Amino acid sequence: MSTPLKILFLASEADPFVKVGGLGDVAGSLPNAILELGADLDVRLVIPFHSAIRADNFDLHRETVFTIPREGGEAPVQVFHTELRGMPVYLISGDPFSRATKVYDTDSAVDGEKFVFFSLAALELARRLDWRPDIVHANDWHTATALYGVRRMQDDPFWKGVKTLFSVHNLCYMGAGSEAALTAYGLPPVNDPELPWWGQHTPMPLGLWSADEIVAVSPSYAEEIQTPEYGCGLETFLHSRHDRVTGIVNGIDTTSWDPRTDEALIEPFSSEHLSGRAATKELLQTNFGLEVNNSVPLLAMVTRMDQQKGVDIALDALRLIPKLNWQAILLGSGNSEIEATARRLESDFPHRVCTIIRYDGKLSRQIYGGADMLLMPSRYEPCGLAQMIAMRYGAVPVARATGGLRDTIAEGYSGFLFTDASPAVMAGALRRALKAFGLHRTWQEMQKAGMSGDYSWFVSARQYADLYKTLIHNSSQE
Ligand code: ADP
Q1: Where are the domains of the chain?
Q2: What is the pLDDT of residues 82-96, one digit of tens each?
Q3: H or E, element range at 46
């Protein structure tokens, strides 16, 4: 039997230990999904021991203690070990994390110190375990420094020949403010004019520069980040590396997101029993002061209230179609100005619009299972999970054709796509969607098309596993 390929998977958060956003979903599912392929892979996950992690909930064992060099001395590292569905998980602790109160801080220098420390400690851990990875797989800027570390240690027999893969979940967050930490831990700027000057000492660009393979979280996002509109200033560099940039769409946890078993729904349903959705729609209409009528299309948003998500575009688009028959539920929180604009729509359209400013997992499930359409007019969307959940629950997405939205929604088949980030263009897509809603058979066919999609991690895990193998195969040919 051949020895399994060893993958050191690094992330700043992973469900169920700690989850702030979509990255937590990915790191909590993907490594296990890769292992479950049974494809001769040994994957180990390393995350920081954030203070938000409730140690009592997990069977943690002290693994090892060591130090890593830091300006003016040594930085102590403590490592704990546990398992997640049979996969080894290591949690790294040390002063930067004991001091921190939040997973992500508003002070970029605080996060710089945390994540540079984490990245280098995770590499040193592999050496201490005498477990030489074949591939280090980092995710977003927080762990990008590890790839720069591997690249700089190519004279070290332990790291020589180790390959690196970098998944980009959101290019815009680069880790600016980490310069002092990089210097303190002995990592100078990279002196390569290929990178813009501002990126020569910043984790995200350094990770991209170091990586043997770059994976964006959808094929469209992989293309988009090579253009000025989406490239955040790194488009020229990324384009020069286009032969190493691919896209792999994320999955969702299809066990947790299943309308046949979801206890938040009033009546479970499936694509053969779509009428079961009506009971949850009625609950939403009743609870939120909307006319209780199954034939009025219920539009919804479940979103962070952030400029990225284009909430303003949706609100203005709805204002352009006041004469059409629709109701809307907006669930989200975030930017206070966007929240206020959403509230204004409710006061201008009483009994037709309900705005709920909070994070509410149970209500989100009821919205996916009861609303007729999910609106996602994102200005950019690396992958997006909400549209996949909506389709799995029979809510038809009306979304901007960008990134993962473009790759997961089939126009006129499982949803409605529009191109320009403008209210007028979105209003056009809404008109088309509302017309289709009135055609009962057409609408049911669209719902069923969305519900029959495979949103599981299996497909993505397979693609990552193939990529790991290609990387190793190619390096053996070098
Ligand atoms: P992003 O990670 O950019 O916020 P995604 O679409 O990838 O967007 O994932 C968002 C996830 O967060 C989805 O599962 C969505 O249901 C959930 N979500 C967003 N806002 C809320 C909210 N206010 N209440 C409950 N769930 C929310």
Answers
A1: 5-251+458-477, 274-454
A2: 999 999 999 999 999
A3: strand 41-48
